[in-house]
Amino acid sequence: MIGKAKKRVLIVDDSAVVRQTLSDIISRHPGLEVMATANDPFQAAERLRREIPDVIVLDVEMPRMDGITFLRRLMAQRPLPVVICSTLVGEGSRTFLAALEAGAVDVILKPNLATRKFLEESSIRIQDAILAAAHARLDRRRQIPNEAKLTADAVLPPAGRTAMAQTTLKVVAIGASTGGTEALRVVLEALPPTAPPIVVVQHMPEAFTANFARRLDELCQITVKEARDGDSVLPGHALIAPGGKHMLLTRSGANYRIEVKEGPLVNRHRPSVDVLFRSVSRVAGANAIGVIMTGMGDDGARGLKEMRDRGARTIGQDEATSVVYGMPAEAKKHGAVETEAALTAIPEAIMRAVNHAASRIKA
C-alpha cells in the first residue's frame, strides 16, 4: 500500500465495545484506517463539520437519533458511502431493507465477541464491505488486496468432459454483490410471469435473505423466495441463495432442483457466485443464461466463463450503471461476457437471450 492513501472510516455506534472491536478489525487491514469514532449521530455530525471520511460505518439503534434517520439526512445534505452495522435479525431485517432504500451501500452484522468463527470469517466480510463502499462510484477500478482464497473447486470440482443428459429447459443464473440488492429489484421487477426459472446469489449475511426475498416477492410479477434444499426450479420463480450457505443447481431427469450445502468461503464468500455458475454450467449447458452484476472483487468471473464455454448466453452489467464495477469487469477480462448491458436493459437482454436459445435448440 506504499504511496496509496488509506481509506478513512468514521464509526458511529453507541456501544464502546463495538466501537473498539470495529476499530481493531478495520485497523488490521493495510488499506483502511479509523478516522474517528462517535457514540451517536449528533457527535458524528459535529465530527463531519471538521473532516470528511471515505466511509461511515453506522449503527441503527442509538440514543437521541436512530441510524436510518441520520442516514436519510446525510444522503439529502452530504451523500457519503455508508455501511450499516447492525444486529438485525428476524423482523428487524425490515430495517435492513429500509437502510438500503435510504442509500446505504451495504449492511454487515455487528461483531459477536463470543464467537471465534465470526472473528475469523466476518472480519473479512466487514473489511470487504467497507472497501467496496469506499470505491462505490469513486475509484471503481481498484481491486481488493490479493490474498489467498479458495475457488469453486473447494465446493464443486471441475466437471471434465463428461457428457450431459439432454434437456430443453432454460434457466437464468444471476450473481451480484455490492449494490446488487437494488440492482436485483430493478431486474426482477421488470421480468414477466412467463420468465424462465431464475437462481440468484447475492452476497448477503445470514438472517437477511429471507426478508429480502419476501420484499422482492411483494414487488415483482414473478414469485421470489429464499431457496431451500430440494426446491424445484420453476418458470416464473426466482430463488435467492440463503446467506451463509452455498447454492447449487442440480437436475433430476429433465427437472432442475436446488441443493443448499455447507462449505468453505469461496472467493471470500458463502454463498459464492462461482459455485452457482459452475453448477449451472454442468447441468444446463447451452440452455442457461448467466448474468453478472455490480459487486466488488472477482467472484463469478470464472464460473461465468465456464458457462459461456459450454454454450450459455452471458450478460454483464455495464460500468456506468454498476455501483462497483468489479465483478462485471473481471468477468469481461476473463472473456466471460458475451453482451454488456445497462441495468435497466438487462431484463430485455435476458428475455432476448432466452428466446435466442430456444430458437437455436429448435433449429
What does this molecule look like?
The protein is of the alpha/beta class and 363 residues long. The chain has two domains: 7-135, 3-Layer(aba) Sandwich (Rossmann fold), CATH 3.40.50; 152-362, 3-Layer(aba) Sandwich (Rossmann fold), CATH 3.40.50. It is 35% helix and 20% strand. It is built from eleven helices and 14 strands. The chain has helices at residues 16-27, 41-48, 67-77, 93-102, 116-135, 180-190, 209-219, 273-283, 301-309, 327-333, 346-362, and strands spanning 7-12, 32-38, 55-58, 82-86, 106-109, 171-176, 198-202, 223-226, 237-240, 246-252, 255-261, 288-292, 313-317, 339-341. A seven-stranded parallel sheet has the order 8-9-7-6-12-13-14, sandwiched between helices. Helix 6 (180-190) links the parallel strand 6 (171-176) and strand 7. The protein is elongated and about 60 Å long. The N and C termini lie far apart (55 Å).
